[in-house]
Amino acid sequence: MIAGLCFAIGLQQGCIKDAPPNPEADIESVQVESSQLTGNVFIDQINRTITLNLTAEAFQQGISPVLKLSEGASVKPESGTAIRFDGTAGATYTVTSASGKNIKVYTVKVVNVGNWGFDFENWQSHPTDAYEFPIESDNVQIWSSGNPGVALSGIPARRDAYPTRSTTDGYLGSSAAELITIKGTTLSEFVGIRLFAGSLFLGDFNASQALLNPLAATEFGQPYIGLPDRFTGYYKYTAGADYQNREGVVQPAVKDKCAIYAVLFNGTERLNATNVMTSDKVIARAELSDGSDKANFTRFDVPFVYKQGVNISDHVMVAIVASSSADGNEYRGAIGSRLVVDSLRVIPKL
């Protein structure tokens, strides 16, 4: 009886194996002293970047981020290590999974939007999906678009297949931003999306929301110091021939138009396409009123209209949004509508 019991216990012990080491190698969160930040930390798990909105003092003196990793993972440099920035390249973190079989390298990028003039002279391409995005002179990306979401729809991996890209048809310099409303793909039409408007905005595209809530994936805004007075720039626009509703039915009486606007709002959390026009955080708006066709580059200069009775917090953000179809966030517009924007400026109050 005792021998049988011992055999049974031994059999059970032989069947129980230790769990395999965790194969994940993610940086799940990054904590920085709130006094060193002008906006929230953003982690892009798809492109493995960590975007920091730092104060000038934090940028100059360095920071000591505290990292939360996947269970059992290790990172170099270690969590809490002081890192400094020289203004030309960001730091990197190398994360190794507990199993040792997975290694990820995250690049740290610091946003320093001190000059609110944007000429769209410098662009980079996504290494696998091939869509373009503008970068600043220090190689930091502060602009995004709907291109990362469009990439999930099965579109060809070519720069000219996407709705937002660079163009040499600019007002000043060698390039500008071109936004074109394009036909949806077979996959996107399956979920009721029959067109993609070209879009461009200050902020980030949160790929984790792209399929569940596409409008929430567009995270608008960058930290702003002071208060803005006017929003200026140059644009030209040609509407596509046939405006269609979300069901793809042509609306002969409706003509497409573009949208260009800037929004000032309270806080350090970005707004998105679901609330940028309705949030009680909004302090002021500057919006192009005429989104009709313009064959040649046309200058706009619109004031920020401040809401009455709104308290302005210590931390504010500004979003700039442009779209080749004003109703593109609802997947309505005209295929072929083309908007080119260049030399955008946010002029501060004196």
Automatic annotation (TrEMBL):
One example GO MF annotation: hydrolase activity
Keywords noted in UniProt: Hydrolase
Keyword Hydrolase among record annotations: yes
Domain Putative carbohydrate metabolism: 119-347
InterPro entries attached to this UniProt entry: PCMD, Put_CMD_sf
Annotated Pfam families: PCMD
Secreted keyword on record: no
Protein known as: Putative glycosyl hydrolase or carbohydrate binding protein
